[in-house]
Amino acid sequence: MHSKKQDPVKYYVGIDVGSASVRAALVDEFGTVVAHADEPIEIWEPQADHYEQSSADIWAACCSVTKKVVGGVDANQIRGVGFDATCSLVVVDKQFQPLAVNCEGQNHRNVIMWMDHRAVSQVERINATQHRVLSYVGGVMSVEMQPPKLLWIKENLKESCWEKAGYFFDLPDFLSWKATGVTARSLCTVVCKWTYTSEGGWDDSFWKMIGLEDLVKDKYEKIGNHVLSPGESVGKGLTPEAAKDLGLPEGIAVAASLIDAHAGGLGVIGADVKGHNLPCENQPITSRVAMICGTSSCHMGVSETPIFVPGVWGPYFSAMVPGLWLNEGGQSATGKLIDHVVRGHVAFPELQSKAATSAHSIYTYLNSHLDLIKKSLPVGFLTVDLHVWPDFHGNRSPLTDLTLKGMVVGLTLSRGLDELALIYLATIQAIALGTRHILETMQAAGHHINTLFLCGGLSKNPLFVQMHADITGKPVVLSKEVESVLVGAAILGACASGDFASIQEAMAKMGKIGRVVQPNHEHKRFYDKKYQVFLKLVEHQREYRSIMHSS
Questions:
Q1: What gap in Å lies between CA 19 and CA 295, rounded to an integer?
Q2: From which domain of life does this come (predicted)?
Q3: Domain positions in the chain
Q4: CATH code linked to domain 11-256
Q5: Is domain 335-425 in CATH 1.20.210.10, yes or no?
Q6: Does residue 496 contact residue 252 with C-beta atoms inside 8 Å?
Q7: Exposure of 480 by Cβ count < 10 A (0-12 exposed, 13-18 middle, 19+ buried)?
Q8: With 0-12 CB in 10 A as exposed, 13-18 as middle and 19+ as buried, what is 277?
């Protein structure tokens, strides 16, 4: 008897560029993260609402983390590389050298970050056109998309940047260019952030109407006239230079990339749910929403036919899952908001000290402190008289109102740790109520959603997860691999390698369920009331603003 020789395991590298760090993972063909590394990247904030990065700094971090994760395996078993990144704007000249996106002329700062809100007046003018392409972004373009940023550059840095620019890349596409030398763009980035449509391509009339007719003249070479589907193989794979930088063999398949949130969606939304007693079992994938929650949050829902949802981006055809339309809701500040509220509180030094003494993170300590003060009440009920409206950085969905501000109702003169814990809880609840607002808007437009799939940094916080289950009334599925965004990026590399027939096949095999958190239906009445108050808060804000701004 001869024992059958086992085929060597196939591996894929997923590289994820987030807002503040770059991460890489070596992922096997079964979706297990075998090795993981991360490295911080720099953010410059030269003035309010201006956030900049350096593409050289980002690429150096990509190379560093990739070398760390691939060191322990035979390089011949690594079959593909996939990138995802924030939808930040990278500007380079005709020789691909960085160009300053700032008045200081600092060329290394050549990236306008996704969360940069400098182009407010530009986006207002773009929205005033009511051009037909805006129907694909919920009727109102966000300041976080690329056309207003391009218009800002033309109007503010015409000689130093606009006229010298050779290429404007979305960051995920910059990374695939850096790896392959090919300037092809991903359908995901150009459809979701640049107004390209999978049916009609670029709309000349839009760019001319908003004053960026220069981009039409060169047949869109600067912003992309060769578009690939996510997961499609780019060029001839890794160039010799990129292979050396990354510590990988030349020619390894490189996939057309995804925006980071979409990679997270890819990593979780297609997982096999058999045996978990979930309402989405034996239902199409369209019954699921993937929620990627980190610095900000994105809510990804797919449909077989286009659904136009007011205040929610899309529908975008094949932008995440090939063959399906994507709608994307979002909250501009979630993890960033929780940090802001907690670290800005007068009791934060006490929290820091006590958390350090107990060898816990500040959030684990806050969660256990809430358990101490709740007495016989369910923990969520502690905020019966404390309410937060979470739009400290404007509302992305479903109200698409950049001018909205955060609100807190129910403050007292108390300054201790109990009060910090309560405002932390109320902030998490406000974020979950915002999710409910987005889901209800999607459902009213025609989506049928029964299960939430969570990933990203905030999904590691059990209080955040439970509040989302209780407040939306839907079960929450957590993936087996916490780093779902990296698994999503690796799925792209797996598709580019040709080892899977389709992204759907790779999603089903490599996306794994970890834990399911069920909603506590006994708490429904309380959260229905909280939701009523939540909607009243924004009514009041609009009311008092109309009083203050009336002539």
A1: 8
A2: Eukaryota
A3: 11-256, 262-333+437-522, 335-425
A4: 3.30.420.40
A5: no
A6: no
A7: middle
A8: exposed
Please name the CATH architecture into which domain 262-333+437-522 falls. 2-Layer Sandwich (3.30)
| Maximum alpha-carbon separation in the chain | 92
Q: Which residue has the tokens 């909205």?
A: 404
Within 13 Å of residue 387, how many CA atoms lie on the same side as its CB?
18
- Helix, strand or coil, per DSSP, at residue 427: helix
Average pLDDT, the chain: 96
| Burial bucket for residue 269 (CB in 10 Å: 0-12, 13-18, 19+) | buried
Q: What is the pLDDT of residues 197-233, one digit of tens each?
A: 988 899 999 999 999 999 998 899 999 999 999 999 9
H or E element, residue 64:
helix 55-70
Same fold? 11-256, 335-425: no
Residue 40, strand partner residues: 21
The predicted model gives 303-307 an average pLDDT of 97
| Residues 352, 357, 361: CA angle, nearest 5 degrees | 55
Q: Which residues contact 102 (CB under 8 A, 6 or more apart)?
A: 44, 46, 50, 52, 109, 157
Element (H, E) at 191: helix 187-193
